[in-house]
Design brief:
By secondary structure, this protein is mainly β. It is 0% helix and 55% strand. Residues 71-121 form the PKAT KLD domain.
């Protein structure tokens, strides 16, 4: 039930009341509740600092490979996901997620394959148990070369 307080404070006072169907008795519940909160830093920022096309021989040219060099700040990530979308970043074409091991500095290289030439939106997400951070870029893949 809720009843207004008797002083000039307009906020209601809340009291827990339950009916007991066996005898018409009321059960009042009072007590203290305690909870712990742990504050963690999390992954604060992700940056794609370099995109490099991997040169392949003519017989290997079915897929274009691109290396993305990524840095981050904050806690160290435990997994990476790459979403390849159309140039507007609206229609997803592929999603690849992998666990990673980063020991002391957040600098990693992610290699992804592109089946055909074109312009793509790349979203790279680094995550750990408590946080995620995202970096995006547009890339043009031209049959084994990227810009």
């Amino acid at each position: 039930t809720t009843r207004p307080s008797s002083d000039s404070d307009p906020s209601p006072t809340v009291q827990s009341l339950e009916d007991n169907p066996d005898g018409g008795c009321h059960i009042y519940r009072n007590g203290y509740y305690e909870s712990g909160i742990a504050v963690v830093e999390g992954i604060l920022e992700v940056n794609i600092i370099q995109m490099t096309s991997i040169q392949m021989t003519e017989s290997q040219a079915e897929n274009s490979l691109v290396d993305f060099v990524v840095t981050c700040q904050g806690s160290l990530p435990t997994d990476v996901c790459t979403v390849v979308s159309d140039p507007t970043c609206q229609v997803s074409k592929s999603v690849v997620c992998n666990p990673i091991v980063v020991t002391d500095e957040c600098l990693l290289t992610i290699r992804r394959a592109f089946e055909e030439p074109g312009t793509y939106c790349i979203n790279i997400t680094l995550g750990d148990d408590t946080s995620q951070a995202l970096a995006s870029a547009l890339i043009s893949v031209n049959g084994g070369e990227s810009t």
